[in-house]
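Backbone geometry tokens:
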Amino acid sequence: MATKQNPKKANLLDHHSIKHILDESVTEIVTTKGYPEDVRMSNIRLFIGAIIIVVALFAQFYNKKFPENRNFLIGCIALYPFFDMSLCLELKRPDRWDLHGLQCPVSPLLSVYLFDWFFYRMGSFNSTGLIVTSKLPRFSDMYTLTIASADPQSISAKPPVELTKSVTKWFTEDGVLVEGLFWKDVEGLINEYAKESKKSK
């Protein structure tokens, strides 16, 4: 007997909360369609993030006081933006910039869009796997979901498909996600991608 799941609820005044709920649901939908998540990029992201934290901790708790630790602090200050930008570049590789811009999801001061990446691969010789991206511009209610080939140069690659819709179509006034409607839209986008003919060379 299936257990009744608690409804997913977001703070409608918080873009991060809204996008987190939607992205979490997208992950569930895509994986149930037979595309297991490729967590390698997430692991790289966590590793670089851990290095950033370690650098910050060393800068804070180094046993020498200023100015004796001046050179050490300069090194930490130089390393922090280096690893921060490395994380940005890892998440938003140059081959995707032409489609999705240069927005960095790591540093709030650099970020124009609340942007996340999802990587999926399918163990089939005739499938390149999927890259699913989402964005929710600040001060906007328009959520965009894009499905593209993980290897756009492959002969099996298909043209990307995109869905843009107001989040108000998926949430009640109390911030509860109407999962049936959202699942229908996302599944429709996945099916649309599956039906697309292979791109011409």
Summary: Strands lie at 113-120, 130-137, 142-149, 161-166. Residues 40-98 form one domain. Confidence is low (pLDDT under 50) at residues 93-116. The longest strand covers residues 113-120.
